[in-house]
Amino acid sequence: MLHLDTSPTLQDCKVKTNFYPSLSIDIHRKKYIIEYMNNNSYIPTTDIPGLRCEDNQLHEDAIRKAQSNLIDGLTATRLAAAFQALSDPTRVRLISALLEQELCVHDLAAVLGMSQSATSHQLRVLRALGLVRTRKEGRVVYYELDDEHIRELFQRGLEHIRHQQTS
Questions:
Q1: pLDDT at 18 (0 to 100)
Q2: pLDDT(27) > 80
Q3: Among 6, 17, 23, 30, which has the minimal tally of Cβ within 10 Å of its Cβ?
Q4: What are phi and psi of 126, to 5 degrees?
């Protein structure tokens, strides 16, 4: 999501982005402030297309349309937490293992080649966020995806990654 600080002249037009909170661009002076990203990568220092403020006019129809589609803060926080849970490769692999069937923690640990305690810890995170649910049979606890939405989200993300790899 881009935020344009509108000012009387192009000289004062600044663009900030939530995608890269450590990036601040002063377009008029062509000054770039780049902070080292935590994954040892840098944001390119070349001009980023589409971030120029050609005029200081607000596009009210576009703003109204975007505002009507904007989700509330609590929903955004919950969605961000779900995506954050999916940012861990181990948790993604756990979801992958649970796509077709429920499994107990022992079976999941064997499938992933991890210790039972490490597997259990990751499952606890997924359960707390409502991505997996449990079913107890005697002393054995089985894990499964919470609902079809989790499966669809995983599959759509996987399709996107595979599409990018072939492009």
A1: 41
A2: no
A3: 30
A4: -65, -35
SS3 state of residue 162: helix
Q: What's at 41, amino acid-wise?
A: S
Beta carbons of 132 and 120 less than 8 angstroms apart: no
Rounded distance between C-alpha atoms, residue 106 and residue 141, angstroms: 10
At 84, phi and psi to the nearest 5?
-65, -40
Report pLDDT digits (tens) over 119-152.
999 999 999 999 999 999 999 999 999 999 999 9
Tell me: pLDDT of 43 over 70. no
Report residue 165 as tokens: 């790899």
Q: Which residue, 6, 120, 97, is CA-closest to 60? A: 6
Characterize the bridge pairing of strands 14-17 and 31-33. unpaired
Q: Is 126 helix (H, G, I), strand (E, B) or coil?
A: helix
Partners of residue 2 on adjacent β-strands: 17
Helices and strands, number each (H, E), in the chain: 6, 7
The pLDDT of 83-91, averaged and rounded, is 92
Are the C-beta atoms of residues 25 and 15 closer than 8 Å to each other? yes
Pull the structure tokens for residue 162: 């595979």
Helix orientation angle between 89-97 and 105-112, rounded to the nearest 10 degrees: 120
With 0-12 / 13-18 / 19 or more C-beta atoms within 10 angstroms meaning exposed / middle / buried, residue 13 is: buried
